[in-house]
Each structure stands twice: as C-alpha cells, then as structure tokens.
From TrEMBL:
Transmembrane region(s): none
Gene3D superfamilies: AhpD-like
Source organism of the structure: Podospora australis
Biased composition (Basic and acidic residues): 313-333
Region (Disordered): 310-333
Official protein name in the record: Dol-P-Man:Man(5)GlcNAc(2)-PP-Dol alpha-1,3-mannosyltransferase
Length: 333
C-alpha cells in the first residue's frame, strides 16, 4: 500500500490547479473605498456602527478574502470613534464564527487564521479573547438546547413548528442538526455566566445574527428563499423588542446608537441598503461561492438518447407543447 502521507505530484498539482481556485481571494485595490462608502452611508442614515461592520464582515468572509478583512478592520477602526481597534477585531472574529452556519467551516478557518495573524503586530492584540465560551457539558446542555429553540422560534414564528416538520421530511436528522449543532451552540449566544466581560467586545446578538445571515446568503447567491426568510427574521427580532436587551448590554452612547440603528436597518429602506451594500462588496471582491464556469459537456459524458449515469431522457419523442406542459407542472411542485 502507498504511504498515506505522500501523494504523487500530479495529484497535488490537480488539487491546486488554477481552474479549481484553491486559494483565498486577494483584496482588490479599491476595497477600502467600498468599506469607506458603506461606513459613510451608515452614518448618514443612522444605522449604527456594529450593524454595518457586521454586514461587511459577513459578506467578506463569504467571499473568502481574509486580506479584505484586514482592510475592513483598518477602515472600521478609523471610521468608528466609539469602537476601539480591539473591539472591532473581536466583532469581526465573532461574525466569522457565526458565518460557519451559512458558509461552512473551511472559509471561516482560512479567513480567521489569516485575519488573526494580521492583528498580531499590534500591542493590543495580546488582549484578544483566548478562552472558549461555547463548550457543551451535561450540566449546560439543556440551556444550550433551549436557547436554540428560542432563537429558531423567534426567527421563524409563526411557522417555526411547520418548518421544523417540513425539513424533517427531507431528512429526519436535518432539523435536529440545524437546531442542536447551529442554532443552540453557535447562533444563540452563550449564557452570561459563560462569557467574561472582555468577550462581550465581540457580542453578536439576536438581530446582528440575522444581519450575518442575510449578508452571507446574499453574497453566496442562489439562495433567495433563505435570504427572504432571514430578512423577515431581522424584522421579527425588532418587532419582538429583542434588540432592546441586545444593545443595552453594550451600554453607553454606543449601545443606544446601535439599538436605534438596527431598528432603521430592519425597515424596507434599510434592508434594501443592506442588500445593496453586500452586492457592492461582492462586485468589488468577486463572487466565488461555487463559481464554476459553465462549459459544454465533455464527449465522454454524452451518449445518444441517454443522459448521465444511464438515465433515459424522457423528453425524447415529446412535442414542444408536451415538454412545456411538463416544465410548467414541475415548477409548481
């Protein structure tokens, strides 16, 4: 048997072939201008500081550009006098962690690792949080599960139970995994007794988590129904008054401005601005979430009268009218 720790050069070359885009995305030359404009518009529209940093960070994590995160940190630190560079860094890191639920683990690993390395040259970096707060134990498991259920209910009410059951028909463990691996231990915040004061610098509460969801999913493309669900989720969080406590915990002038800002952001005009801001970041960095270029099917994948894997093309022999009727019928399912 071949040595499992060694691979042939041709396999390694294929893994890293440019067509598979194996590397993170470099920061475009003018990404700072984009972040500056978003910061300025957020200030003019009074959307608060943390909301715009949150949407910009979530979009940038999704687009797999850690070097752009460095630019975002620089812009946000200079454009937000109420937030220290340490607080901005903690906020960006916490956003990146929650991006796992929408983008998957690898992009967060790559982006957080490179982002942390870029921060280490700063004297204040030694004060970055270094103790975990989301460990699950027999003692805290009931609380973790309940926080997940509470968040799920808040986002999807009054359809939370119906949605849970519908997801279960796709796969019985799908809703179980979503609630017990994402909503409970990750998207819902740990209890106060598990979070030291310093950790609260990166606090991403109920409504900022909805901003993370909207920004990630919008930047991905192809998941419009989920974008819509989380836009509603943001609006419901405000209607339920959950932002009052969320930003009261920050205290002072900063908390009050962000509380009022997230209220405005949840309105129609605010949500349009949120989506347009994400789009501007995606246009600058470049969409790359599963961004394969469509090409003609290779000859070896074609066989007359047969589709891939030997599946018979059932449309052969049908009239155009019959084909169109079938397409229309399927679109209603």
């Amino acid at each position: 048997m071949a040595d499992p720790n060694k691979i042939r050069p041709t396999l390694k070359a294929l893994i890293n072939h440019p067509h598979a885009r194996p590397n993170t995305t470099p920061a475009p030359a003018k990404i700072r201008n984009v972040y500056h404009r978003i910061a300025r518009e957020a200030r003019e529209r009074q959307y608060g500081e943390r909301p715009w940093i949150t949407l910009a960070a979530a979009a940038t994590f999704t687009l797999n550009s850690p070097s752009s995160l460095v630019s975002l940190h620089s812009v946000a630190s200079s454009a937000t006098p109420l937030l220290t560079p340490l607080a901005v860094a903690e906020l960006i890191r916490e956003v990146g962690l929650k991006c796992i639920s929408f983008n998957g683990i690898p992009r967060t690993i790559n982006c957080l690792g490179a982002f942390k390395e870029s921060l280490d040259i700063n004297p204040w970096a030694k004060n970055l949080a270094n103790q975990p707060t989301r460990g699950v134990s027999p003692e805290n498991l009931p609380g973790v599960k309940q926080r997940g259920v509470d968040l799920w209910t808040s986002v999807y009410t009054p359809f939370h139970q119906k949605l849970y059951e519908k997801l279960g028909t796709s796969h019985p463990d799908l809703p179980v995994h979503i609630l017990n691996s994402h909503y409970g231990p990750l998207l819902a915040d740990p209890s106060d007794k598990d979070v030291p004061e310093r950790k609260k610098l990166g606090y991403v509460g109920r409504n900022l988590t909805s901003v993370v969801a909207v920004a990630c999913l919008r930047a991905q493309t192809g998941v419009g129904p989920q974008v819509l669900s989380h836009v509603y989720g943001l609006r419901k969080g405000i209607a339920q008054g959950l932002h009052e406590q969320e930003f009261a915990e920050l205290g002072g002038q900063e908390g009050g401005a962000d509380r009022r800002g997230i209220e405005r952001l949840a309105g129609d005009e605010g949500c349009e601005w949120l989506l347009n801001s994400v789009d501007s970041i995606a246009r600058a960095i470049g969409g790359n979430f599963a961004a394969w270029r469509q090409e003609a099917i290779a000859d070896e994948d074609l066989d007359e009268g047969v589709v891939l894997d030997g599946e018979v093309d059932e449309s052969r022999g049908l009239s155009e009218e019959e084909k169109n009727e079938g397409i229309a019928r399927e679109s209603k399912l």
